[in-house]
Automatic annotation (TrEMBL):
GO terms for cellular component: plasma membrane. Its main location: membrane. This is Xylose transport system permease protein XylH. Part of the binding-protein-dependent transport system for D-xylose. Probably responsible for the translocation of the substrate across the membrane.
Length: 356
């Protein structure tokens, strides 16, 4: 029987059926995304009054664009967290892969599509290295990907300086084939004073695909098994090693997509920079706010997407309300703390349900 991706997976027999009157409440509490959904409703209602421009076309477009960039990485990281692993290198992979694309175009004279293909393969190779190191050495993925982060950050800055003579590479919009990728990675629809980017469609499509994978596929079952009971899953024949490596390739691919979107959008890249306003830790934060436990075995792709939207609404709401932007860090910390407490309470409640 497939594991439902937005609920705590169960091994063995099915849980005893809750009384009819409590079934709706029990199903609601079993959803990791519940705290994020409640938080999103509260924050949207508050800033709709405190910053009315938030619900204007400009405000909505800015919120959705920020949520899309954060959600693309956050959803991929959420799947990895469900499997009980971390990846701190998504942000630096985004910058490094886009820098490789830029160097191949600007210095080597490649056309756009081949350069993007090579940078994608390089990102996948980094994902494979991360995954293989984790499964073969038993080292914590937090430390492995932290090392990857440092290596890529230093290499990208020093390499760019050595090859291009600067840490910033730009002027790419005149490259061969550049116009052909603009619609795919930087298309937009103008509604009033709001520019709704194609990155929103990428985010929604990837969220839907990830949610379907967790709900309906054996791969989703394997992800939950890896995070919930890794040794037992291995003994039962679940492909733990292959699943782990595949998930690291997924987060690396998400990093490449983020880097490509920002590269095509701005036509330049800064070595050692970030993806827009985002840093690598932000992807983990939104996944946790969305209901993923740091211990693995519990989480939701939809919850991570809602967490990204909550993050974006809070940031843009504070900006439009004219508050000191530093209040956002305090609000984000409070949301993270509430999410951690709520997830712990829900998990203890679910573990206490008797099983027949």
């Amino acid at each position: 029987m497939p594991v439902i991706g937005d609920r705590l997976p169960a091994f063995g027999h099915l849980p005893a059926r809750a009384p009819q009157g409590r079934s709706f409440l029990a199903r609601a509490l079993a959803r990791p995304s519940l705290p994020a959904v409640v938080g999103l409703v509260v924050v949207v209602l508050f800033f709709a009054f405190a910053a009315p421009d938030l619900v204007s076309p400009f405000g909505l477009a800015t919120v959705l664009d920020t949520a899309a960039l954060l959600g693309i990485g956050g959803v991929a990281v959420a799947l990895l967290l469900v499997a009980g692993q971390f990846d701190l290198s998504v942000g630096v992979i985004a910058v490094s892969s886009s820098l490789l694309t830029a160097l191949l175009i600007e210095i080597a004279g490649w056309s756009t599509v081949p350069a993007l293909t090579v940078s994608l393969l390089a990102a996948l190779a980094i994902g494979v290295v991360n995954g293989v190191l984790v499964v073969n050495t038993g080292l914590p993925s937090f430390l492995v990907t932290l090392a990857t982060f440092l290596i890529l950050q230093g290499t990208s800055q020093a390499g760019s300086q050595a090859v291009a003579g600067a840490t910033r590479v730009g002027g790419l919009d005149q490259a061969r084939g550049w116009s052909s990728v603009v619609a795919l990675f930087d298309g937009a629809v103008q509604v009033g004073n709001g520019r709704f980017s194609v990155s929103i469609l990428w985010w929604l499509a990837l969220t839907a695909l990830a949610a379907w994978g967790l709900w309906r596929t054996k791969f989703g079952n394997a992800i939950f098994a890896c995070g919930g009971a890794r040794q037992a899953a291995h003994e039962l024949g679940v492909p733990v090693r292959r699943t782990t490596v595949a998930l690291f390739c997924l987060t690396a691919s998400a990093g490449w997509l983020l880097g490509t979107i920002t590269l095509v959008r701005f036509g330049s890249v800064q070595a050692g920079g970030t993806v827009g306003i985002l840093s690598g830790i932000d992807f983990i934060v939104v996944a946790v706010i969305g209901g993923c436990l740091l211990t693995g075995g519990y989480g939701s792709a939809i919850g991570a997407a809602v967490g990204a939207l909550l993050y974006a609404v809070a940031r843009q709401g504070i900006t439009l309300a004219g508050w000191d932007p530093r209040w956002f860090q305090a609000l984000l910390g409070a949301l993270l703390l509430v999410a951690l407490v709520a997830n712990g309470v829900v998990r203890r409640r679910l573990k206490a349900v008797p099983r027949s």
